[in-house]
Design goal:
- The chain is of the alpha+beta class.
- The chain has a domain of 220 residues: 3-Layer(aba) Sandwich (Rossmann fold), CATH 3.40.50.10480.
- Helix content is 18%, strand content 27%.
- The protein has six helices and 14 strands.
- The strands form three sheets. Strands 1, 2, 3, 4, 5, 6, 7, 8, 9 and 10 form a ten-stranded mixed beta sheet that branches. The protein has a two-stranded antiparallel sheet with strand order 11-12.
- Strand 3 and strand 4 form a beta hairpin.
- It is elongated.
- 17% of the residues are buried.
- The C terminus is likely disordered.
Length: 324
Amino acid sequence: MIKTNPKNARAKRALEKKESKLVENVKTALFIQGSTGTRLLHDAMCDLSAFKKPDIKRFQKKNDIKPFEDASPLEFFSEKNDCSLIVFSSSNKKRPNNLTFIRTFGYKIYDMIELRIQKNHKLLIDFRKTTFQLGLKPMFVFNGPVFDSHPTFKHVKSLFLDFFRGQTTDLQDVAGLQYVITLTAAEVEEGKALPSVYFRVYKLKSYRSGQKLPRIELEEIGPRFDFTIGRVEQPSPELEKEAMKKPKQLETKTKKNIETDGMGDKVGTIHVGKQDLGELQTRKMKGLKSRFDQVGEDFDDQEYEYANDEVVEDYEPAQKKQKV
């Protein structure tokens, strides 16, 4: 990004907002309609933007853009509107009802993935009307081990978590947990296409249970989408390394000689000085004094030193008396 000198105070404030920060702002999503968009795609983007409000921007006019062939118009819109998340809609015979989710870093394309909406969809208008406060952060549930093992589904998981992350805060309020977004996918089979991703949204409802904790139930509020994964563009290693880099101010300072074991317990190493064993007192009780030392048959040392400094050499144990 080329730095420019501001001409007035207003331009200076606008440039300061775009500068890099230790804790980044809430990511704004830009919804763009393609030249071949459909009514379904328009309604789907409206429903997705309802959960992202108020951090959204939408274009009303259609734009002839092909993200995987020429992404320069998207980079221009990203910089002009200061948006790092883009949802682009397009539809054709080969890829019908297609939503392209795009992330940018430094107003350059970071990664892209196509999610096509299947026919068995339901929009918000098809469900019973329910309301919840805007700006709330949803809870996420990922059903299926593929979200932790397959690279494409890892991409999908990272995308949706980043898309609905919201504002970073340490405050925890149970009243703010009002809805849950679930993503479900089956196992990946060799030689077959990737399984679909089932997108569902539920609202939390609490009822009296007669106990200390209430009874929680989930009610589907929509929208309901079954996504088929299309083309995927992963970030380059250099761009990914730069995007994942943490500033020095946020890096946790490691304490020397302190580590955490596998059970989560904190273990520390203590360094002490060298001990002088010559000053160590070992005989403190009466029974351990030298005059009470006893020598048995199994004593085979050649020299034995008593407390009165007398040394007996070639000591032979006394013979036992035998009965005749």
